[in-house]
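User: Show me sequence and structure for the first protein, then do the same for the second.

Assistant: Starting with the first protein.
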Amino acid sequence: MLRRDYDTQVCSIARALEVVGERWSLLLVRDVVFGVHRFEDFVERLGITRSVLTARLERLVGEGVLERRPYQEHPVRHEYLLTEKGRQLWPVLIHLARWGDTHYPSPEGPPRAFLHTGCGGAPDGHLLCTRCGAPLDAANTTSHPR
């Protein structure tokens, strides 16, 4: 994590990176966007240690990016969902994925497809649907492996 020393540097990017700049944090937000919500599923999907996962989830919940909700009572188990603040990271994830696809392409092509649930179009560079022109967001876009 970056030091929290902004006496000589006033920078919104640095402050944002304090919350989502650590590698696992954005990958956790990405996975929640893709439909992963449970602790064990994060461990399996990411290969992250339990202690690191616990710390990152606590940080994202504490910062209001994720919400922790019980889904089972005996024993108590929780799932993690995006808050409005977390949903606002969706454009960042899409643009980062597009940037990665452009500058670090896989020989097989982009690993994920993002599609408008209304018509099946893809997001353009302005996150508008290429087919119908609708603005796209986390609520009206699906993602699946190619």
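Switching to the second protein now.
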Amino acid sequence: MYETDKDGYLVNLDDWSRETAEWLAEQESLQLSDAHWEIIHCLRDYFQTYELSPAMRPLVKYITATLGPEKGRSIYLMQLFPGSTAKLAAKIAGLPRPTNCL
């Protein structure tokens, strides 16, 4: 068990690990594949660089620059992280909720 806030985000970002991500994904009924992990690692790199969780547009732009145009498409990301893509991906990556996501 990991301590989360009312929206399911980690209270202590240092608690994040691969096991934590698996647990967070399970809470969202999501099974992580290599494609998910690729995006999760990019998100964590983004957070280390900019000290914030990206909303959808900056996320798409960063993934395009990092992994290429095929993976940096909204549709691709929404298939991996359905619903509110940026929020769900940030949650599983152990990051705070993106500030400009509803």
